[in-house]
């Protein structure tokens, strides 16, 4: 089995690219979606988060705007949240691998792959990238996003050029969706994983 990690900074196109790998038949693990499930209604991290960050949950679910406001501007608070969240994500990832143990390849969409020192665990690392201008335009056009929140998130992520320097493959999402999909298929071909595996 080949394990592929997919990473990239905010708004670079990870989710879009991960969906293309999934369409091509590669089972895909989504770290952000896992975090949302663990923090969502009845999620097993909700009581732990309420205990450490009082007032950031409501009726058994994390209120993300409240939690985001509590941690994004403060390195230590974010580290405390990560200490709760990351081991749980790791656990879910192991479960996903066991459930899909007969697949020829698995893809792991992990936004903070390098930041958490996780890249060594994968056979190949794919970095999704675009120009800083395009990244900014994409992110600022999202509902609820502000320049300040965007800057705070960027400052918590390894710069794009360092991510690219550490990649086995780079997918440039500055072009059309079809151009992005062609790069996904080229990587699958390069790895001997024809579409539809
Ligand atoms: C801080 C939280 C509450 C913000 O939630 P919100 O819904 O507002 O934003 P969302 O999750 O869509 O994230 C927005 C952007 O911030 C990035 N981001 C999220 N957590 C972090 C972090 N710890 N460090 C750097 N960037 C982060 C995401 O990758 C994304 O690019 C949430 O992201 C969270 O619980 N983060 C801690 C868990 C974590 O580290 N997740 C990353 C994937 S394992
Ligand atoms: N050629 C392209 N390839 C990928 N995405 C594109 C392309 N052109 C435009 N986009 C758009 O750019 C946005 C990228 O957002 P996406 O959610 O995939 O990024 P992300 O890296 O997963 O973000 P986050 O880090 O916040 O989770 C989407 O709205 C997508 O439709």
Describe the protein's topology.
Elements: E1 2-7, H1 14-23, E2 28-30, H2 31-39, H3 46-52, E3 57-58, E4 61-62, H4 64-71, H5 75-99, E5 105-109, E6 124-129, H6 132-140, H7 147-155, H8 160-165, E7 169-172, H9 177-190
Parallel strand pairs: 1-5, 1-6, 2-5, 6-7
Antiparallel strand pairs: 3-4
Helix pairs in contact: 2-5
Bound molecules: dephospho coenzyme A and adenosine-5'-triphosphate (ATP).
Family: Belongs to the CoaE family.
Subcellular location: Cytoplasm
Pathway: Cofactor biosynthesis; coenzyme A biosynthesis; CoA from (R)-pantothenate: step 5/5
- Do you know the CATH topology of the largest domain? Rossmann fold
CATH architecture tag of the largest domain: 3-Layer(aba) Sandwich
pLDDT < 50 stretches: none
What percent of residues are in strands? 5-15%
The number of helices is 9
Q: Give the structural class.
A: alpha/beta
Give short descriptive properties of this protein:
Rossmann fold, binds adenosine-5'-triphosphate, alpha/beta, 2 domains, ATP binding, nucleotide-binding, 197 residues, two-stranded antiparallel ribbon, five-stranded parallel beta sheet, Depp_CoAkinase, binds dephospho coenzyme A, Dephospho-CoA kinase
């Amino acid at each position: 089995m080949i394990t592929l990690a997919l990473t990239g900074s905010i708004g670079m196109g990870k989710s879009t690219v991960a969906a293309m790998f999934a369409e091509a038949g590669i089972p895909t693990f989504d770290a952000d979606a896992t975090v949302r499930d663990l923090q969502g209604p009845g999620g097993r991290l909700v009581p732990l988060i309420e205990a450490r960050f009082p007032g950031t949950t409501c009726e058994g679910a994390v209120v993300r705007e409240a939690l985001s406001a509590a941690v994004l501007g403060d390195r230590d608070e974010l580290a405390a949240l990560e200490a709760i969240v990351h081991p749980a994500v790791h656990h879910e990832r192991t479960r996903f691998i066991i459930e899909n143990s007969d697949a020829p390849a698995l893809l792991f969409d992990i936004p903070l792959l390098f930041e958490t020192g996780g890249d060594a665990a994968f056979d190949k690392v794919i970095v999704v990238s675009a120009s800083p201008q395009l990244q900014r335009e994409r992110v600022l056009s999202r509902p609820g996003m502000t320049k300040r929140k965007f800057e705070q998130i960027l400052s918590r992520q390894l710069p794009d050029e360092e991510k690219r320097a550490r990649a086995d493959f780079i997918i440039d999402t500055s072009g059309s969706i079809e151009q992005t999909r062609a790069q996904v298929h080229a990587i699958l071909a390069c790895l001997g994983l024809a579409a539809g595996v």
